[in-house]
Design goal:
Elements: E1 2-3, E2 8-11, E3 14-17, H1 18-25, E4 40-42, E5 48-50, H2 52-56, H3 69-72, E6 75-77, E7 83-85, H4 86-90, H5 96-113, E8 124-127, H6 129-136, E9 144-154, E10 160-172, H7 177-195, H8 202-218, H9 223-234, H10 238-264
Parallel strand pairs: 8-10
Antiparallel strand pairs: 1-2, 2-3, 4-5, 6-7, 9-10
Helix pairs in contact: 5-7, 7-8, 8-9, 8-10
Length: about 270
Amino acid sequence: MTALSNSYMTNDSGSYHQDCYRNYILPKCDACGHPLDGQYSIDSWGNKFHTRHESETGICSSCSKIVSEQTTNSGFIHNDGRIICSLCNKDAISTEKEIEDSRRRVLNQLADVGFFNLDNNVPIKVVNRNQLSKLRGGDPNIRGLTDYKYSSTTNSRGEVIEEHKEYTIYVLDKLPELVFDSVLAHEYLHVWLFENDQNYKSNITEGFCNLGAYAIYNGIDDKFSKIQLGVMDKNPDPDYGEGYRKIKKCLEKQGWSKLIKNVKNGKASLCY
């Protein structure tokens, strides 16, 4: 694009008065509607916006959309610092019925890929990030946690005659349905690992459990799920990102049945 004079602009389609070019030719910001005549960015949904809006209204922590009246019906900053758009907040899981509906969806999807007989009575608690961080040691990006307590009864010879395993799943508040389901699926695979007495390194454990989230998103053919899968594929974290991608490649080669069998038998390291 070059200036013809003080009044005209030109591009491949022709020459225009500057005002005409700005108002009718330049793409418009999806957040404010004004012409994108300066630096602009594009969110995961393809929304183009002035880069300054990211520091003004931000990107939704759940759906990855630029927050604005036009794109998300506005949004807000949660008391834990997360930016939450109005669309995700409207769909957030909070009631006991919603939690149990999520459990049903998640257990059905996990059973479809080969995780059978998962306990449908594990307590599920929705908590804020401060509570999660205290349980997990200050991780600022945590969305879920499985608390595991083990005890046993022994006989007079010191032999274990009875084992007791108790779980509580904690999930971050203000998560929309599909994200909540993905977090719950991840945590249920932690339960599965505990039930099968498997204690892998963190990159294997978290990478494997992230296959639960993958199973949820991969089972739904919509743009939201595709975007979340893309976010997982680009996650730079050594456990939740790189660890996940390595075991996902293993899944693609072996299929669910063989992978589940290997992980259950302590052979997950074959994927790494």
